[in-house]
Structures are given as structure tokens and as C-alpha cells.
User: Fold these one by one.
Assistant:
Number 1:
Amino acid sequence: MNLTLFALGRLLSAIPVLIGVTIVVFLSVQLVPGDIALSILGRMASQEQLQALRETMGLDQPIVVQYLRWFGALMQGDIGVSLAQQLPVAQILVPKIWNSLILMAGSLALVLVFGFLLAVLSAPRFRSLTDRAVVALTLVLASLPVFWLGIVALYLLAFKWKLFPISGMYNIVSPGGFWDLIHHMVLPASVTAASSIAVVARVTRSRMIDVLNEPYILAARARGLRRRQVVLRHGVRNTLPTFASIGGLQIGYLFGGVVFTEIIFNWPGVGLQLYDAILARDIPMIQGCVLVVATVFVLGNMISDITVHALDPRKG
Amino acid sequence: MTIAAANTTPAPKRIPRRSNLYFVWRGVLGDPVARIAAAIIAGMVLAAIFAPWIAPWPPNEANPELRLMPPGTRGHLLGLDNQGRDILSRLLYGARLTLLCGILPVLIGAAISVPLGLLGAWYRGMGAVIMRVMDVLFAFPMALLAILLAALMGPGIANMMIALVVTLIPYNTRVVYAAACLEREQAYVEAARAMATPDMKILLVEMLPNVVAASVVYSCTIIGAVVITAAGLSFLGLGVQPPTAEWGIMTSEGRSFIFNAPHIAAIPGLAITVLVMAFNLLGDSLRDSLDPRTRLRLVRPAKEKR
């Protein structure tokens, strides 16, 4: 199939999923125990205040009407008003989304580079010492809770050995440019990336082992190509679609980690904002954060599907 | 010539039929790494059960004079936390909730997913609806959906468990659905239909035993991730509440004192890591011993391998 057509079809199929996401996020408010207005304003609120909030939130309308009104506002970029900060959620979130995307991009780069390197190092030497070491390393990485790894890295690398800054995105006293950002990003990005590196390395490795057992690899060897050439040219080429698809899946899992690393390293992104919203029980803000992340996840998966399609050697 | 050559090659040895249980038994017990993993988990389960008898101190008894003291303090092997509570005792008691929060949601999730996947594969219209709903749930990263649900339902162990169950259902349902779709096309199902066996009997008596293995294997491989997610929810203040001992909340409480007393956060986190690693190793071994591509090594003599 033509790549443009495939991309278009994939884009169209993401739309019902995204609409489903908005329905889930909208309905999640129904989970709040008791009277929503009461739980937002607290027990000290007067009847008039409660009634006013019910009207502004549309709580006195049938649920379908509530959803359509909410969805209509959403389409115009209005996710609601933060209860804690009394500002539009979208206005607060936009700069944070960028900060989170920067951190995610850094992590994703680490995941792809190291996941791939570990796989290429281990798969051609199946069952060798290197291979076993890589498998053991991925096992440990996959088992580390991200919040604990973050605390340990913060203590050892930032506090004790002073290799990296302890928190934030830029130096507060003299905010530098790009390199200051990178310096601040190394720790949170690596901590976020750890378990995803393990997943990518394992899946890519096992796919590559299968590829290297294919008859065409033997045929290439029989034609006199060097082993290194065979691995790099034919092995890697045919492993790429699997690598791209598992790498793309990590976008969502990385965000699960970003929530924790942003809290631990005080990175001013969506994750830290989500944590503050949880502590303040700021429901519109929680919904906004989740909505943003789920949308990024769906779009990320879409991009990775298209990349996989483009990389597949069987389809030009 | 070719016939003679064919006659001289020995006929391939017959591989005896074995039940799944046989493969689980041989595969897991024959694998030294899996044995160690199983021993670690068994040790932690025993520690959790017998915590009141083996813990040197009550989990919430505070000794303010000794607060923040490091491991090796007299009478406190693993040191004391920010309130002067014995970390070893809290670790032993904390194993109860940490294990429970990792295992129970997986069991409940499987109990819901197996019927959903089976019915979905059998009644295709229903299956289409179920799988579209699952597609939407898949659009949320696992940790995020759990955070959303737990945050809106309010903190607490029960709500955290519900959030984890809902988060797990799409994954397990997809596994069961895929397995059931394969089974649905098998000759034995066709035979049962030809004999006018009622649908429910085909599903429960014929297909269920063949589908449930996939769900069990998947559940075992996911426990490690659930332990981390549950501890993470408690870390965010959404699950277990202080002063209850649980490894995630212990790590979270220790975070504020990391620069003076790093052991408070380091020790429970290390315990989570060891537990998760043990579950992951055991899950991998279990999957290998039930995977048709790898399990033959368990019945073949080692020499014929590759």
C-alpha cells in the first residue's frame, strides 16, 4: 500500500480512539465519591456557592448534554478552569507540555540508542558471555521501580558526587542555554529511560536472533559476505520494523515514568503538575493532564506505526 | 541409493505427550534461576505471614531519640526512619500489603478478563464491542489510567485495587481473546458444535481449559509490573496511607530525608526491586516452559538441542 494512503488511514482510525479517550476522561468525574461540587469546594462552602459551581460545571444537566458541552469546549481548547489556581487548565498546561516533551524526547533518544546497541551487541553472539550479560542487565533494568532509581540517582550522582544538578530545568542563578538544559536533563532522562531500554533491547534482541536464523542470512554468508556485513546490512535491516514498533510503544510507558522523575527532579512538566493537582484534588487539572498525555500517546503510536510501515523492507 | 540412505537414518525418537502441568513443573524446577526466584518470593510471603512473630519491634512504635539512625544501630539491624520506627519491622509488615497489592488485582483482573475474552471470541458482535472498548483503554499508558482512576476515586487501598484491576483488564482480555480466537477454529470445537453442544458448555468445558493457560502465563509475567505500579500509586499518595507500612509509601516518606538519611528510602525500594526481579524471572521461566517453541528442550535429551 502507498505510504501516504496508509498514513491517512492510520490518522482516520486514531480519531474514534481519541473520541473514546475524551469519553473516558469525562466519565471519570463520575467516580468522585459523593457530591462533586461539595468535594471540590469542601464542607465550609455555602449553598449558594455550591449551586453556582454546579451551574458553571453544568452538573444540573443530563449527562449526555454535559458531555457534549464539555466536548464542544474542548474542541475550542477549553479544558476547564483549574480549581487550585483559578486559571484555564490549557493556559497552565501548554508550557508544561513543552517541558515534558523535551524530557520525553531526551529519554526516547536514550531508549532507542541504548536499546538498539544492546540488541546488536548481544543477538549475533547468542548465548555468549556478552549475550548473557546483556540479558542480565535488561532483567535488572526492567525490575527497577522508577521512583526508587530516581531517588538513588539523585542521592549518589547529584548530591554526593555533584556530577549533575539536583533539580529543575535550568540553573536558577545564571540560566544557560542548550547545554545547561542538557546538563539538567541527563539524570531525569536516564532514570525515565531505564526500564524502557530493557524492554526495547529484549524484544529487538529476540527478533534479531530469529532474523539471523533465516535462510537468507545463511545464503548471504554462503555467497561470501563477511559475518559483520551480514549482521549490519541484512540482520539490522530486517529487525528495524520490530525495533521501531516496540520503540514507539515506549512513548506511553515513558510518560508513566516521567510522572515520577518530574516529581523527584522537580522538572516543571505535566507530571509534576499532575502530582500537584492530585495533592490539591484539582479535578479539572487532573483530567487535563491525563487528556494531554493520552493524546500524545495515541499520536505517538500512530507515528510509530507509520514509521514501521515505511521501514518494512517488503513494502517499498 | 537414496532409499538405502533413508533407511539407514534412524527414525526420529517419539516425543511423549505431556500435560502443561508437567512442563511447568519440569521447566520451573529444572531452571536454577527460577528456583532462586521462587525461593525469594516464598521467603517474602513467609515474612509477610509471620511478621508479628519475627519482627523485632511493632511496625508503628516510634523511638524519637533514635530517629534517622543508620543501619547497624544497636537493636535495629536496618536502622530507623524519620519518626524513629524500626525499618526492618516495617519492611516485614509492609511485605503484606506490597504482595497483596501486586497479586490480588492480577487475580481479580484475570477473573474478569477470561469470561470477557471468551465471550468476545465466541459471539463476534459482542467481541467487536468489547475489543473497541479495550482499544480506548489501551490509549492510556498503564500507569496513567491507574493514576486517573485512583486520583478521582480518592486515596485508599480498596480504590487503588479497583484502579489497578480496571487498568489490567484490557491487557489480559486481549491475551485471552487472541487465544480463544485460535481455539474457536479448532476441530474439537467444530465437533462439539456438530453434536449440538450448548454454547456455554463448549465455552466452559471445551475451550476454557485451553485458553486459561495463556491468561495464567500472562498474569505471572505482569505481577512484577503491577507491584511497581501499586507501589508507585502509594508513592504518589494515592494508595496505602501513612502510617501503614508498605514499601512504596516507605520509599515516599524517605524521599524527604534523602540527604540526611538515604537508607530510609533506599531499603524499601531495594526490597521492591528484589521482589519484582524474582517475579519477572519466575514469569519468564514459566512462559518459556509453556511456549511450544522452547518447551521441547524439556522432553528432548540435551544433546539434540540445535
Note: Residues 24 and 48 of chain A are 30 Å apart (CA to CA).
Number 2:
Amino acid sequence: MSDRYTQNERERAIDELIADAQRRETPLPESVEPSGKKKSGIFRRYKIKDVVFLAIITAMTLITGSVMPLLIHIPVFGIIQLGLGLQFSLFPVIGMMKVRKPGALVLMSLFSGVLLVFMFPPMFFCLLICAVLAEALTLAVFRGYDRDAACVLAGTVYMPLTLPFLAVYYRFLYDWSDGANEAVSQLVGARPLTAIPISLTVIALCLCGALLGRLITNELKKAGRLKQ
Amino acid sequence: MSFFRWKPRLYPIVAILASVFILIFGIVCARMPGFPYFLAGLLVWLTLFGCGRACLRVLPAALIVGGIFSSLAYVSSGRDAASALAMANRFGALFLALVPGMSVEPVAMTRSLSALHTPRAVTLGMLIVMSFLPVLRAEIGRVREAMKTRGAGSPLRPRIFYRAFLIPLVTRLVDISDTLALSIETRGFTLGKAKYTVYKKEWIRISDILFAAGLAAGAVLVVLW
């Protein structure tokens, strides 16, 4: 049998076998799914580990933001955002930097809804709308979450975007109920000089939270504890 | 026939809607004279529908927090008793709005959402958020204990807070989520369009309709007072 194949043919066959084995062992590039279909540029499918991590991060955000029910009754413009800005920017940035897929912020807002509807329902709807807006803005600017700056931007604008929505809600509520708590309308309408510094403080607070989240994530990545 | 069977546990979606209604109604109608009676009636009504234990759990917090904020409202409004009462009413409504939610089991919520064909990624996330709150709270306690044991210093100092609290906490979150994801995947859970069945479906019952009708009747009585 061995006489039927020359030495060169044997060597070629061995080389082809090795090349084939190497081809099989080489992992598929990021943009190709195991089925062979090419993934779209921005949107990628969520895995179970992504959903679980986002849910755990949301639970931690809600635990640290459990003062919200007490803050909603204080009729001062921006008090909720001042109380929750740090937590609602730090943890979402960690979630987005781990998952790095569009829709992570919207998913976190949806998950938080399960508790927010009992704590303060308008805040849930506000957060959901603001998550969509923040993601749209980030995707328009960065076209994805591959860069850290994209996650920081989304985390920074997420909470400050709720300021106008909640201000409209409070104005409607107090105008409609009895007008006893006029602090909101005074701050937003008659005294913009007070509303502007509060809004800037909220933005600065959220930026600090987002940068802290980025710092933590990068540190954990360096230590090899955080993998995508 | 299960529709007519009395079940002292609220259907999750009814509980959510009831919470939203109580909170919004409480904020809007807190100054109405009949509102304290509405709150008292609501307390009895919730107890009748299987939320008695949750009511007992929130009452002390409601009395303390409501008392503090009512006192502040009384002082800040120039000793106006009506303002203090309105503030107490708002906090009463706030804490009673939490009761239906506290009495809903996470798994019942997931089953009812699954029966309504909510995407599985959303129901899974919501289930984890509801179930893991006590676990994560305990984890915060453990990280604090570890800080004390190591003699890390005051957590009020930013550098110590970052290094000795935030980093270990986030590391633990990553570990917990990895373990949980692996556990879910090994039990055959998928996020795709695979067929699935809902074990023990949750359905709306006559007791839920009675509960909602009672709540609405109470609200109408307060408005007409």
C-alpha cells in the first residue's frame, strides 16, 4: 500500500491536515457568529451572562438609591437627581463597560421598573425615556460602545435628562392638586438662576460617578476580573 | 372554576396597578378631608387580601418617617396643621403603596409576565432584581465587615471608600453574576425563540377584582366627601 504514494504526496497530505486542524482551532472573529452569519456593526445579540450582569448591577443601583421614596416628597427642584445622581451614573457605566452593547442602559431601566413602579412610578417612565434618549445620543456620536468615552457620555447624561421631565411632572401635579408646594414652579419658572446651578451640579455629580465607574472597570479589567 | 376560588394573594399585575394608583392618588388628594379615613380603610382592605404581614412591616417606618416630615412641614409652613396632615397623608400613601409590591413573590411576577409573553430577557432580569436585593444587601454588610476586620479606616475618606469598599464590592458583583449566569445556562435556559411552558400559570381571580373595586370605591368616596 505504501508504494502507491510518493514521499512528496505524503508530506503534502500531512501539511494539509495540520493546516485544516489549525483552521478549526482558530476562533471566529468578533464580527462573525458561529452560524457563519455576519453580525451587524452596532447591534449585537445579548447573552445570558450580559442580562444577568445588568440585572445584578441594577439591583445594586436600586439598593444604593433606596432613599428615592423619601426624596420625592421634598418639593425642591432637582433633589432626586442630587440624591441619586452618583449611584445612577456609577453603576450603569460599569454595566455598559462590561457588556458594551447598545440597549444595555434601556435594559437596566426596564429591570429597575420592577421596583420603581412601587417606589415612584413617574421616575420609571422618566428613566426609560431618558435611557432611550441617552443611548440614541451616544450611538449618534460614537456609533457604538467600543470606546470608554461612549459609556461615560451615556452614564453622564442619563440622570440629568430626567430633570426637565420630572419638573414638568411636578409642575402639573402641584398646579393640579393645590399649589401648596410652589418651590418647583418658582425654581424652574420664575427663578432660572436657581435651577441652572442645580442642573449644573447634577451634571457634575453624574460626570464624577461615570468617571469613577470607568476607573473601577478599568482597574478590574487590568486585574483580569472583568471579561466581556 | 379557579376564577371563583378565594385566594388571599394578589395577582402581580393588579398589585402593580394598585401601587401606582395609591401613590398617585395619595400625592394628588392628600389635602382632602376624607383622606385619612381612606388610608385607614386601605390598611384594613390590604390586610383582608393577604398583605397583613407587609402592612405590619411598613407601619413603624411609616410612623417614624411620616412623623419627621410632618413635623418639618408644620414648622416650615408657619405652624399650619393642614400642611402637616397633608404631608402625613402623602407618606401614609407612599408606604401603603409599597405593601402590594412587598406581598408579590418574584416567581409569581415572572410567571404572570411570561404568561403575557414578555420577552424572556426582561422577565429574567426582573426576577433577578427582585430576588437578589437581600443577597446584595448582605454582601454590602460583608464588605463593610471586612473593612472593619482589616482596620481599613473610615469609609468617609474617598480613597479608603474607593479602595476598600467599592473595588471589593464590584468584584463580588462580577463573581456573583458569573456564577449565576453559569448556573442558569446549565439548567437549559436560553434567550432565543425556543418554545417554553409556564409552570403554574397565574391568573386573575374574583378576589383581585373585588380588591380593585374596593380600592376604586374608597377613592370615589374620598373625592365625594
Note: Chain B has a mean pLDDT of 85.
